[in-house]
Amino acid sequence: QVQLVESGGGVVQAGGSLRLSCAASGRTFSTYTMGWFRQAPGKQRDLVAAISRSDGRTHYTDSVKGRFTISSDNAKNTMYLQMISLKPEDSAVYYCAASISAFVLTNPTAYAYWGQGTPVTVSS
Description:
With 124 residues, the chain is mostly beta strands. Helix content is 0%, strand content 51%.
């Protein structure tokens, strides 16, 4: 098992930047495929970015490509999501998640472990 705790959310103006962190405890997260999801009020939870545990490949949803960067520090057992050029439509609660899948899967049901979420609000 792995326990996940997100941090770094907040309120930022459009065009601004934030870096989210996901600290893992328990089993090292290098054994999991890790992802960042987000969920806005009244909307489904969608995958934003992920890293495959099998080959380290990254995946991004189209709307964040070129603006968000997912990375991990295995020594710190921490994953990050650097977000730049933020837009109001990026506002949501952002969740860190872990999957035993070797490859990135976009369906939230493939991820067994979740953090509590950290809210991001982008004002226009």
